[in-house]
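Lab notebook, bench 4. We co-purified these components, and the gel suggests they stay together. Before we commit to crystallization screens, I want a quick structural picture of the whole thing.
Request: model the full complex, all chains together.
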Amino acid sequence: MSAVVEKLHSRIAEVLGRRFVTDDAERLEAYSRDAWSRVFLAAREGCSTPSPDLVAWPADVEQVAAIMGLARQAGCPVVPYGAGSGVCGGTYLLDGGLIIDLKRIDHVGTVDRQDRLVEVGAGALGEHFERRLALQGFTCGHFPSSMYCSTVGGWLAARSAGQMSSRYGKIEDMVSGLTFVDGTARIRRLGARPRAGAGPDLIQTVVGSEGTLGAVTDAVLRVHRAPAVRRMRGVLMPSLESGVEAVRKMFQAGHRPAVVRLYDPLDTLVNKGKGTDTGGGVVSFLRRGLGKALPKSGKGNKRRTRSAIVDAVLTRPRFFGELLDRAAGSCMLVLGSEGQDARLVDYEAREILSISLRLGGLDLGEAPGEHWLSHRYSVSFKLTPALDMGLFVDTLETAATWGRVLGLYHAVRQAVREHGFVMAHFSHAYEEGCSIYFTLAGSAPDLQGSEEAYDRLWRAALDAVVAGGGTISHHHGVGMSKQAFMHKEHGEGGMVLLRALKKALDPDGIMNPGKLGLGGGPELPGAPWRVTRAGSGRGGWKVAA
Amino acid sequence: MSLIQDLEGVGLGLSKGQDGAIKAYPLDAEEVQALVRTCRRAKEHVLLEIDGLPPTPLWAPQEGMAFSSADEETRVCVDLGKMKAVALDRESHLVNAFAGISVSDLEEYVSEHGFTLGLQDPPALAVGAWLALNEPGPGSRLAFPGWSPVAAVEAVLLEGSLIRTSRVPRSATGPDPKALLIGGKGRLGVITRVTLRMYPAARGKRIVMAFADAADAVGAVIEALGQDLVPDAFGLLDGGISESVLAWEVRGDPGRVARVSLAIDEVAALNGGRRLASIVREPGAQGEMLKEPEVPGLGDLGAAGPVEVRAAAARRAGRRPEPSVAIGFGARWSRIVLVRRALINELGGSVRLHLEKALPEGGMGIACVDSENSPRARDIIRQAGGFPVGDEESESWIEGVAGTLLGEAP
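Here is the predicted assembly.
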């Protein structure tokens, strides 16, 4: 360990106590990656990823400010860390530095029943938070598929969306106030007040900043009484176009169903119309449909035993994609309404079903909706088997206005088909448009080939997204994985404004460098970046002021 | 060359005002961009003035100093009156408008096409300035999270570059640049075009209820919001010693309107309210929530508005009405009654509150007090847990970003 790191280690230990800061190699290793598929490829081959130099576990905002002050003095890069479930490489410390793990700041307060607000620590795990609310008769309404392995701070950092966002909003809609420590180690407390027509909304300049401006330590979130009534439904729509039209009509008529998920024909086929989420469907499909020769787990030499059929599919994605398209036809639409008043919930459920049926839908009853509800978190646990099979599987979530959404869908599929397997569902609907969630899969014989294929696929997909008028991310964030496209998303003026904000709050550039296209870091996807172990204990940090 | 010659050189329509200010009439964002860049390159301190906004300096602050006035300033007044074009996206329910059109004219335009912006009271202010000031804010439903009226913004930043935020429903691509521009009072840039959400103009129903006590009315609002009943428009007038009046309007799908109205009635009754009126609202109808001549008994309650209420109360007491001042404020629901009580205890019974917006966690509106009590009233509101509007922590934040922008070479 270098003298600089050692000194910082000692000084942090003075603030937190020795138990709460470490330079232990094994523990550092655990913080060397998040859940980004590209780096999983390297990990699968036994390659280590860059580790931080130190990990610290502060207990409150004052401790966070104190250790960030020390890091600033030392010129040490800092990354705030939740549960590591981000999928965009947002927590990598490319040149070493300090990880601030916020999981000790996990308090969940008593719900203010009149204002329906609750104070929660950034380190609270999603599931724990929701359980604590449920005990008080409330819900946050935020149910990302990473519910069991993500934190409130992570949700805020990445502008997360839950599966019921159509009713409850995205996380940025739920936050009424927050406390964060900026890059100068200053504690800032924002909001926690009703606001409309009262100056700029500073909270929205922090939410989504992915740790590049500071570390969020606490939030005041809006909560709802736990729903007393819920109605789930499945409808088989005759085509994707009719399904999209049905969803558009529902939202433009003022309905706000909690669940609206329209699976494209291929996704519907792969999941046999059960209304299950896609990532897991890919694996099941490849297992079921492409030969029992596939191994059930990833132990041992799985790639050598992979069946020729899978190779054939994944090396000719366009051919097989088009073949499957011919077999596919209808689209599964899963609907769910919930709330306090049965009269209103039943009315909404009847109306949205009626809209679907008028457009040619076939009512499948409650079963598909209930099936989705009981399997809604499964996807996060099914991607590992796909990796074990030698594939890479990833997801791209975009959004566009109604006038563009179908064109965008077709353009992305067309662009990706040269490089991999693709299917999608539509969810997170709004008055003016909705999100499309693509599942992408591909493979290559070795690590370098996989990384290059992965980047080619992503580059093609994001080029199509930008050309089609979509956003490069609806709710996963940008991190390192999409930063080459930030300029296309925001334009020169947008990047000038974001850089000015960064400089105002983090003048020394210590906060999560090399992310969000704000300077430094590889221009991914596309830059020839390989995972290499840089090792910890360097202390030769170079942060961009 | 003088600045005016430089500006003429980039093809801008100009005139010289009697007060010595240069008046510029850009036609689009590119011309605004040319204007800002030319002003920034000038060897003089230029103060940019957009109609309706406070003047914005275009020079970088000195080290360690906030933006101070220079000894000699050249004023450039930007008239966006030639930037009024509008385009509708009917499929996505969006309207794209240049910043020079007034919000009320824009509402009129979309209403001719069967839509509404959904604002409670569209102001005559230009839409760009309206967003830059973030006043008076949207109507109640649109002030709820997820219902923001603004889908996208185009602006020329003060260092001269053009920003066009994505016209997508939502994104997760870093901080939201719109959040710095809306309410930024022009300190970071000139808003040149906006994309607003619009809604099908639909019939609605306004229910007007009276409560013996303002606390009961607030209790009814808390209960209704707790049941996720969201008003499209809202008004709550503190009646002082007479009854308080709550107006709750819901619009849209007739079946939903009927059911929500029924639920509101039930909530009000449980909280001691009595219905004064149920009024059908035609598509596109606007206006203040509590100036409804059709509401029987409203005049008896003196519920024409907080200033009128105070005047009537003073007359009844045989006093001359004092000049009133309206202080914009917001407070969480749990604090509204405390704020009211504190104001009455400290300033006397002539204080009236008028809440104009119901948000999930609190209300916003005005506290109407004697003008001489205005500074004290702000302190009282703050001490009771409310937030006087304008009492924001945003100034230093925006100045920091502006300083960075203006520190860039033009």
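Chain A has a mean pLDDT of 89. Worth comparing against the SEC data before the next meeting. The two ends of chain A are 25 Å apart (CA to CA).
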